[in-house]
């Protein structure tokens, strides 16, 4: 938490996060061009943000791309906001929304180029984390109470339904399975007409053991630029609930986490 507060305390670093919020997946050169400082200066600020978990990097050929990771801010929200009254909560919710929601102009539905990356560290084993991702009873505890029907084999389909299993909220197909390290699936959200029109996207879960913990990287891609934010906006809440469940055995009780239970 200290690293997150330190990173957010600097106005230049907050501006860098704003730039990634407006256009995710930028190179150092692209970010450097927007600031009146040296390349080394921008790099140092990015290193602080990356150390705090607020920025995640990915290699694409020779390029190193920088992505905004909102999970640490979500964890700050979950740790303290529920203890205070609504006016206090509204302040952090406004910050959360500013970082999570895209404001890009809508392009054609065929232009599926947007990618969102979420990184979180959980004190657990790869086996327990894999079970929490693929077991429908556990998954419902942090996935808005929704239920999942899936055989969890390559080529199998899955359905996501509400807690009473009355309404179909989403569907997809399992593309890759490498337990307990990697799971790749498609996702077609169906809970309303706006998200249904977005079509099918892809979600990749990657688990890496780190000491007595695991690094979980969730990549949601193959979305058009300006895709409806309901498609990907729930991930910080979902992954915070997953971390809480595995580390404490308790269900996250922030209002958004239980809204569909």
Oligomer: single chain
According to DSSP, the number of beta strands is 9
User: How are the strands of the largest sheet arranged?
Assistant: 3-9-8-7-6-5-4
Kindly state the mean pLDDT as a whole number? 86
- Helix amount, in percent? 25-40%
Secondary-structure element pattern, one letter each: HHHHEEHHEHHEEEEHEEH
CATH topology of the largest domain: Alpha-D-Glucose-1,6-Bisphosphate, Chain A, domain 4
What brief labels describe this structure?
Alpha-D-Glucose-1,6-Bisphosphate, Chain A, domain 4; two-stranded antiparallel ribbon; 27% strand; seven-stranded antiparallel β-sheet; 9 strands; 2 domains; alpha+beta; 261 residues; Arc Repressor Mutant, subunit A
Summarize the structure.
The chain is α+β, with helices and mostly antiparallel strands.
How would you summarize the topology of this molecule?
Elements: H1 2-8, H2 11-22, H3 28-32, H4 39-51, E1 55-60, E2 63-68, H5 71-80, H6 86-100, E3 114-122, H7 126-134, H8 136-139, E4 147-150, E5 157-161, E6 168-178, E7 182-189, H9 193-196, E8 200-210, E9 213-223, H10 235-248
Antiparallel strand pairs: 1-2, 3-9, 4-5, 5-6, 6-7, 7-8, 8-9
Helix pairs in contact: 1-4, 5-10
């Amino acid at each position: 938490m200290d690293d997150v507060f330190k990173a957010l305390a600097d106005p230049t670093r907050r501006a860098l996060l704003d730039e990634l919020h407006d256009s995710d997946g930028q190179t150092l050169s692209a970010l450097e061009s927007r600031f009146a400082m040296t390349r080394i200066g921008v790099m140092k600020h990015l290193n602080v943000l990356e150390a705090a978990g607020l920025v995640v990097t990915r290699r694409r050929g020779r390029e190193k791309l920088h992505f905004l990771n909102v999970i640490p801010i979500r964890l700050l929200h979950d740790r303290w906001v529920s203890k205070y009254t609504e006016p206090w909560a509204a302040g952090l919710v406004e910050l959360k929304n500013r970082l999570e929601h895209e404001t890009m102009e809508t392009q054609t539905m065929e232009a599926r180029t947007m990618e969102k990356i979420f990184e979180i560290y959980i004190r657990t084993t790869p086996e327990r984390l894999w079970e929490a991702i693929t077991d429908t009873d556990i998954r419902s505890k942090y996935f808005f109470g929704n239920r999942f029907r899936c055989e969890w084999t390559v080529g199998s389909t899955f359905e996501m339904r509400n807690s009473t299993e009355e309404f179909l909220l989403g569907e997809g197909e399992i593309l890759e399975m490498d337990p307990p390290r990697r799971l790749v699936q498609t996702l077609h959200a169906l809970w309303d007409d706006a998200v249904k029109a977005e079509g099918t996207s892809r979600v990749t879960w990657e688990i890496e053991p780190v000491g007595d913990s695991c690094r979980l990287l969730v990549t949601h891609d193959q979305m058009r630029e300006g895709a409806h934010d309901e498609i990907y906006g729930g991930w910080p809440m979902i992954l915070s609930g997953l971390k809480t469940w595995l580390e404490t055995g308790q269900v996250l009780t922030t209002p958004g986490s239980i809204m569909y239970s």
